[in-house]
Design a protein that fits this description.
Layout lengths: L1 H20 L2 H7 L2 H4 L5 H29 L3 H18 L7 E2 L2 H11 L4 H19 L11 H18 L1 H5 L9 H10 L6 H19 L10 H15 L1 H18 L25 E3 L2 E3 L1 H8 L5 H18 L6 H16 L7 E2 L1 H9 L7 H15 L9 H13 L5 H9 L1 H16 L2 H21 L5 E6 L2 E7 L2 E3 L4 H15 L2 E5 L3 E4 L1 H16 L3 E5 L3 H10 L7 E2 L5 H10 L1
Main location: membrane
Subcellular location: Membrane
Protein name: STAS domain-containing protein
Length: 584
Amino acid sequence: MIEVIGTTVRTNRLRRTASKLCSVESWKRRFPITIWLPKYSFEYLIRDAIAGITVGLTSIPQGIAYAMVAGLPPQVGLYSSIFPGLVYMIFGSCKDVTVGPTAILAALLAKYVAKSADFAYLASFLSGCFILLLGVLQLGFLLDFISKPVISGFTTAAAMQISASQLKPLFRIQGSSGNTFIGAIINFFKNIKTVQLWDTLLGVCSIGALLLLKRATIPVSPSTSERAARWAGAWLNVVRARNALVVFAAAILAFALQLYDITPFALTGTIHGGLPHFGVPPFHTVVNNQTLNFHEMLSVFGVEGFVMPLVAILESIAIAKAFAGSAAVDGTQEMLAIGACNVLASLCQAMPATGSFTRTAINHASGVVTPAGCFFKAMLVLLAVTLMSDAFYFIPRATLAAIIIVAMFSLMELQIIRTMWRNSKTELVVYGCTLWLGALVGLEYGIVCGAAADVTRALARAARPPLPHHTLKVGNQDCVSITITGALSYSSSQHIQERVRRYATTNGTVVVIDARLLHAMDLGVAANLIAVILDLEKEGYTFLLWNFKETLKKLLEDLHCGFDSHFVDGPSIDRHILGLQFSR
């Protein structure tokens, strides 16, 4: 009979789960385009087109620049801005997020691309599959274990490394950029005598122009005239397109000098435009005249390769949460969307893609209404790579380096150091560990060691929970009240026992265990608490267990019969203590 009931319960549970997964609403959540497309209007079309074109003007120079950071042909960065964006339009749940190549993913990818460009396309495929798997299994909660200090430290280390790697094209020095921040800095000073004047001058001027344009917004107030407000809005669009404008001006300068056979700058060079070669990602490649099969390529990625998909989804979800306001972000859907974006990217010779903070901020500020903004952005970049690729030849590398360096300024989270110093020095240690290991050894090691340090900090806190206590005098009785809060794990059992013994033996003969804020405790904690109470009662101490939840009472009674006499309830403990005096 029991087996029949159990089978019926499991069947009903499976039926409810299947009904939930197969419902129309569930499928609509997995294809968000079916939610917003039926409500689409001409007004939305205009606003999305303006936002998409504005973002596209930034995506073109950044796509080229990030591809060069990874050591890939420039058009690969543009492909990464096109096809993943089209996928995100269908599966993406956040209207503001713009998907494409990012500086951090480019930096993580660079050491693999140094062996062969095929690793970039395989990385897109493997990252996409891994992220899709996390989404299908609804394992988004795992990302909650990577804390804010770890993310901030990793982001700052990545920004430092990427900025340092751009010193080589900015000053046109010789040598290698290195795979770490310290390596790039050492190379810069080692080859500082090879600095080229005109590239340096153009790079510094590009940085200055970008910073000036960024701050050159026209303030608008309620008292501003309508004409002035329109002018301010038009100028704001110029400010948002500053990357494209600076690149355009530098390319015009390089082209004009080329007419007089003067080439003072290192140029981007030939970009093979047109559509990519569509097909499955490479599962074998050639490195140093040696053919590597799929298994050997996986061994090149190693365990460190898992950092890329984790960073990709962390970036995207963090950006979505930042721009969602009070709206909830469906982490599972974002995983499915970013995973699908990268799987398609691998079929189109594109590098790994995820949400970009800079381009998402521009998208949001431009008034995007739906994910259709990604479509217009992708179409503009597609138009550029197919019809205007010859014009990219004259883009100076120093200008692209300047764009990347300025973009990195906004990624460096240094102001958080002051907050952590004042409020949580242990989190500052985690931040510093992630930052400096990432900068000195490698970004992958930084985030892994930072996460490990954070887990250690969390375990230490679980093993040593705070036990606030205070003394009180009720009548003529000296008492001590010990407050136990939260959920106590087995790792804290010895600590709880030692602290209860210490506070009891130094503060009074009546000990109150205040459990009003205690939600749960493991078996080991309960056993040790009973043991110390029984030991101290033999020495003449009296214990009152105040306001324990029924589940905790049952646990303690199961471990020691007759323990229910210790439990007292009520809004005040004083009458119970006075009752002890009266009984004596």
